[in-house]
Amino acid sequence: MQNQLDMLRIFKVVAESTNFREASKRLGISPQSVTRAIKELEELLGEPLFYRSTRNTSITEFGKQMVLKSESVIDQMDALFQLNKSPETQQIEGSVKITMPNSLGRKYLLPALMEFIKNYPGIQLDLRFSDLIDNVVADQMDIGVRIGFFGENRNVARRAREIKFYIVGTPELVAKYGAPHQVSDLCQMPHIGLIDQNTGRIWPWSFASEPDCLPTAPVFITDDPEAELEAVLAGIGYGQLADLLCAKYIRTGQLVSVLPDQSPEPWGIYVYRPQRGPVAERVRLVFDHLVETLSNVSLY
Question: Long-range contacts for 46-52 (Cβ within 8 Å, ≥24 apart)?
Fold first, then answer.
């Protein structure tokens, strides 16, 4: 059984949310933990707090009364513990270890984190840049950022934004070789290959309605997305690039998007942390800051 005050805190957030899943994201815990806490609280009180359906959650009349009562209890408890804290212990300090992809981290997250620590000088950031999905390293981190798909129940994850992919080339490349009219045309034209550092093999290109295509004879191969971008900008060949890298070049006309109707389903950019005990305030602050930063990234 959970601590009764913790159950009241969870209940209050659920009451302010549209459903249990939204509440779990706000709390940084799994939906199962939220469901379990509400169920235990209802059993203690002997009354239902919410009406559940497959689409949404609505609070009962008894639940509305409990919201008012729980707010005063939570406020009193917070005030009681705050009285016993000295100014020194109230200061947020300590280390926060973060792992993040190279290009995304250096270009978008590093500047935001530099501004963040100006406001929280007591927090020590320990940043590890890597495109490898290494569970051993990730298990030693407080927070991770990952691009792609996320299905690990042992982590609390927030999908901060989507990332889209485009087949792009320079206007000069299009003028010289023509624009591909179908996916099979790409293999007959100069193209760039990106090595997946996790497997050591070339990433296959994905499309909306065609099977994945493996670049068969790339004219340039690299394991670094920034180098891949430079090769495409130099007009060496076509490449499938993330919008975080190529959107501004498409806007300025330095790159041309081809086969736009074959753009694959967007991937997610996730900020995650392990589900292990209470979450330190410094970790929560950095976690929320990373989510906010990614949500507000301007591609131009």
Answer: 49/11, 50/14
How far apart are the C-alpha atoms of 156 and 46, rounded to whole Å? 30
Give, for 149, the enclosing helix (H) or strand (E).
Answer: none
Of 13, 2, 6, 1, nearest to 59 (Cα)?
13
Q: What CATH number is attached to the domain comprising 214?
A: 3.40.190.10
Structural domain of 104: 91-163+267-295
Q: Are residues 171 and 155 in the same domain?
A: no
Query: Using the 8-state DSSP alphabet, how is residue 109 labeled?
Result: I
Q: How large a percentage of the chain has pLDDT more than 70?
A: 89
Q: Is residue 62 part of a domain?
A: yes
Tens of pLDDT, residue by residue over 73-118, are 877 776 666 554 444 434 788 999 999 999 899 999 999 999 999 9
Closest among 299, 198, 180 to 251, alpha carbons compared = 299
Alpha-carbon Rg for the chain, nearest whole angstrom, is 24
Q: Which amino acid is at 133?
A: I
CB neighbour list of residue 156: distance below 8 Å, 6 or more residues apart = 28, 29, 30, 272, 273, 274, 275
Domain count, the chain: 3
Q: What is the pTM of this model?
A: 0.65
How wide is the angle at C-alpha 291 spanned by C-alphas 264 and 140, nearest 5°?
100
Residues 174 and 243 in one domain: yes
